[in-house]
Description:
The chain is 64% helix and 0% strand. With 402 residues, it is mainly alpha-helical. α7 packs across α8 and α12 packs parallel to α15 (325-332). The longest helix is centred in the N-terminal third of the chain and has 34 residues, at 54-87.
Amino acid sequence: MQRLRGMLDNMQPLFLPGGKFERFHALFEMVDTLFFSPPDLTRGAPHVRDALDLKRVMIVVVLAAAPCVVIGLWNTGFQANSALALLGAEPIGGWRGSVLALLGAGHEAGNIYDNFILGLLYFLPIYAVTMAAGGFWEILFSGIRNHEINEGFFVTSLLYALILPATIPLWQVAIGISFGVVIGKEVFGGTGKNFLNPALVGRAFLYFAYPVQISGDAVWTPVDGFSGATALAVSAVDGIGGVVDSGLTWTQAFLGQMQGSIGETSTIACLFGAVMLVYTGVASWRIIVAVFAGLIIPSLLMGFVDNDNPMLSMPWHWHVVVGGFAFGAVFMATDPVSATATETGKWIYGLLIGFLTFVIRVVNPAFPEGIMLAILFGNIFAPVIDYFVVRANIRRRIRRSV
């Protein structure tokens, strides 16, 4: 590391103002801060001393999402291998088949190693394209503004890749992250100035622009000719009885062994991530609890209503394990940039997201998964919520002083 530090120090004058490569200073800064802590120090008051800088926050979030990645890769491979066995189809060929053979992996659904490696071969291209396309826009805007490249994109890219199906075309992956970075963040000034979650903006764009490749029954398992609906899609038509009849148990749904996007099916993995994020202070436990409460409370109240809508019959404990609800509540709703900042506002913000999720799932059977749109709506209302909370606090203090 000392040799690398010396090499970077020798190269630094070339990227400083007046240097030969001044225009690429943002790119050099990104590489430098990737391996070493930033050299800039706050020397004047007032400032806050804290060891948790942006780079460490990024590392914490990535570690918190690691269980979702691991279980998601295994589940992607498991669903594919199970479909191959069910259809009696030929094993997956092409370059993926060659890599599987090279690594000694097969196509047995009961083999954890086979499933994980196969899932990895679908996830890596998606993540690589996400990093390349999104990183291009980050570097371009940083170079134009002469700002340092923010490490927060590493988190955005990982979360974005985890909320996509394994079968999505790679060119759509690039378009989606480009839309999310440029329209969802950079047009507002970059990291810290966006009011919408960039990963969800990209995902929402893909849903409405290319619904065939990101919704339906044939996109969740990367096996040609196999059709398997998600638990939410089944429940929207046949209710919870249809989910049970399909063979899916609550335990399987809780662990993440079901159809869905790559990394958002496992509730237990999301809860492990929530513990780490809350313990380190990166995420607000108020938001997470409020989002869960916002979905559970109306599902309990409306569960006794006699209605033909099959989603009303879904118990609350099923609501929280199907779809990407837990993933959205833990990793998306708690985004410190696009969420509320006041303590009271966090409760209101979380309850709003949870309630909107329930409403979208129940009222709109054509769009059973509501957490994505609910969080984006919550992002829009977050500044308004904080404004009224602050105004209420001011009025309360004025009354005390009179």
